[in-house]
Q: What sequence folds into this?
């Protein structure tokens, strides 16, 4: 298994544009997390899904952010419209609830100019 | 609500010196505590968890429920320990992290 796969690895976009980040969790995992990493705030939990259902989205900063998990093998995080303050590294992680260890993707470095 | 606090953003120690990374948590139930590490240009990965009570790469962490702490310790730091360390709390399947501590071990 290649682990959690995120795409793209790097994204540079102009302010106001829509950005979509993608994640493929490890097969068999039923929990999926989206995190945002910044120098100022460290690793912030944005949203987590259990069995494809969003359980807690209290960390989503604004309505400009939305996340979906249409099936067990795919999730997206969308920002529309994007702003410079959204620049960060976005991580996706998955876990199998009973074992509790979370496996992280390599992250998407987003730069909004 | 669950919360994880890492008071130190940066920690610099000399090689061979002891290192301790502080972590405090707040949660009304019985939490699961973890330490994750991110080496340069690598994925964030699990370092150790409190239920296993084991030493990984010379690091140990003891859960102190009275002080609601889960500090990470290593008696003799090595240069390869330079990394970002995150304390994490898992409750109700939700995994929350502290802000992280960047450790630099100098020769």
A:
């Amino acid at each position: 298994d290649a682990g959690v796969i995120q795409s793209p690895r790097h994204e540079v976009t102009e302010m106001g544009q829509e950005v979509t980040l993608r994640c493929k969790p490890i097969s068999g995992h039923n929990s999926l997390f989206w995190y945002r990493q910044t120098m100022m705030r460290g690793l912030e939990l944005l949203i987590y899904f259990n069995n494809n259902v969003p359980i807690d989205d209290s960390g989503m900063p604004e309505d400009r952010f939305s996340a979906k998990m249409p099936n067990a093998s795919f999730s997206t995080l969308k920002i529309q419209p994007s702003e410079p303050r959204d620049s960060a590294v976005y991580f996706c992680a998955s876990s199998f609830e009973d074992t509790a260890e979370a496996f992280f993707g390599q992250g998407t470095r987003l730069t909004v100019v | 609500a669950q919360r994880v606090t890492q008071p130190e953003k940066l920690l610099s120690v000399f090689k061979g010196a002891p290192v301790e990374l502080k972590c405090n948590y707040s949660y009304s139930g019985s939490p699961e505590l973890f330490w994750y590490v991110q080496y340069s240009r690598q994925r964030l990965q699990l370092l150790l968890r409190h239920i296993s009570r084991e030493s990984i790469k010379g690091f140990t962490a003891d859960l102190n429920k009275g002080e609601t702490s889960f500090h990470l310790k290593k008696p003799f730091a090595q240069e390869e320990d330079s990394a970002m360390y995150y304390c994490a709390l898992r409750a109700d399947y939700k995994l929350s992290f502290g802000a992280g501590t960047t450790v630099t071990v100098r020769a």
Q: What stands out?
A: Chain B is about 0% helix and 50% strand. Chain B touches chain A through 20 residues (CB under 8 Å).
